[in-house]
Description:
The complex is a heterodimer of chains A (116) and B (115).
Chain A: E1 3-7, E2 10-14, E3 19-26, E4 32-38, E5 44-50, E6 56-58, E7 64-68, E8 73-78, E9 87-96, E10 102-106, E11 110-115
Parallel strand pairs in A: 2-11
Antiparallel strand pairs in A: 1-3, 3-8, 4-5, 4-9, 6-7, 7-8, 9-10, 9-11
Chain B: E1 5-7, E2 10-13, E3 19-24, E4 31-38, E5 42-50, E6 53-56, E7 65-71, E8 74-79, E9 88-95, E10 105-106, E11 110-114
Amino acid sequence: AQSVTQLGSHVSVSEGALVLLRCNYSSSVPPYLFWYVQYPNQGLQLLLKYTSAATLVKGINGFEAEFKKSETSFHLTKPSAHMSDAAEYFCAVSVPASGGSYIPTFGRGTSLIVHP
Amino acid sequence: DAGVIQSPRHEVTEMGQEVTLRCKPISGHNSLFWYRQTMMRGLELLIYFNNNVPIDDSGMPEDRFSAKMPNASFSTLKIQPSEPRDSAVYFCASSSGTGSYNEQFFGPGTRLTVL
């Protein structure tokens, strides 16, 4: 069975500080990995995705994530936090499902809090 | 494109009433997903369709929940009868193709409150 674990339901940083949101996965097949962001009262939107090309993936708003197979991790980072980054972040792994299609399994989410 | 459209955005109803949530996926997308989000359980996949056909409904909590997709541009999620524990935000998402790397596009959600 596939699963996603996001360490820390809440992460608090100061504006301008490094952002690190952790994600570990388990998968019996090579995974496809995603990070989504959810702003208050909105749906999820894609930040970035790993599809077995480069292991370092760059996304929108200055975020990036590195796929490390040996550590089964896909942590999300941003060098300098901005107040507008405050949101809920979800890691997801895409796995084979019925009918030959793929569906993502989402982590529980990490709430990023940015202090002035 | 207008993105995924959901209606209503907010629904307040009384226990025992029927609730119908609606979704219009992005034109050209052939996969559609219904999720439920709560503080306790996080984001749960309820059911997904591929080419209007339900593929996996194992996430539907019980028989009170049903979903349909009569055509490629419309889907409904119905709860009958509704209960207070159904209170949650319900999201619809769509994606193109069935590839593992296809991202999902989420609607803004319907916030359901059952009194």
